[in-house]
Amino acid sequence: MLENNIQIYIDADACPVKEETYKVAARYKIKTYVVANSYMKVPLDPLVEMKVVSGAFDAVDDWIFESVTDRDIVITADILLAERCVKKKARVLGPKGAEFTEDNIGSAVASRELMQNLRHMGEMRGGPAPMDQKARSQFLGKLDQIIQSLKRR
Predict the structure, then answer these.
(1) Are 9 and 62 spatial neighbours (Cβ–Cβ below 8 Å)?
(2) Which residue stretches of the chain are H helix?
């Protein structure tokens, strides 16, 4: 029996928490879609499905956005995909455990644009800090909290 028709969509190309997501999804028996531009190895589990989406630059984002509902969870670091999914009332979680919501997505988009402009002007280099154990723990805790919240609906 699948858990309350909840599904998880992983924007998988650069996702550092796929393994953690698989474990939590298995515990709750939640169908999980791993969506990427090219094939990657996923667990041999009927609840985990690899979706290879080829085509335009945003093809993965478009597939996730078109598939997701207000009962689903999207795992992504892509702020613009997060914004689109939040507008559809999906629960959206970043790989470091920060949830994107209607209350914070606007500032996340603005920060993204500011950082992009600073990098373009040569004022900033590099990307986000690497994943550490604290971030993985925050992710796991928040994913569990979101699932519990969706189950109560």
Answers:
(1) no
(2) 18-28, 59-67, 79-87, 105-120, 133-152
Say how far apart CA 38 and CA 42 lie, in whole Å: 12
Other Cβ atoms within 10 Å of 127 Cβ, number: 10
Cβ count near 49 (within 10 Å) = 13
Rg from Cα positions in the chain:
15
Around Cβ 40, how many Cβ atoms within 10 Å? 13
Rounded Cα distance, 16 and 36, in Å:
13
| Token couple for 98 | 């920060």
Say what the pTM is: 0.85
Task: Give the other-Cβ count within 10 Å of 125's Cβ.
Answer: 7
Per-residue model confidence (pLDDT) at position 54: 86
Residue 9 — φ and ψ, nearest 5°? -120, 120
Residue with tokens 């002007």: 121
97: which DSSP letter? S
* pLDDT at site 140: 96
Nearest C-alpha neighbor of 99 from the set 146, 150, 52, 151? 146
Nearest to 128 by CA among 139, 119, 138, 140: 119
User: Cβ atoms within 10 A of the Cβ of 59, count?
Assistant: 14
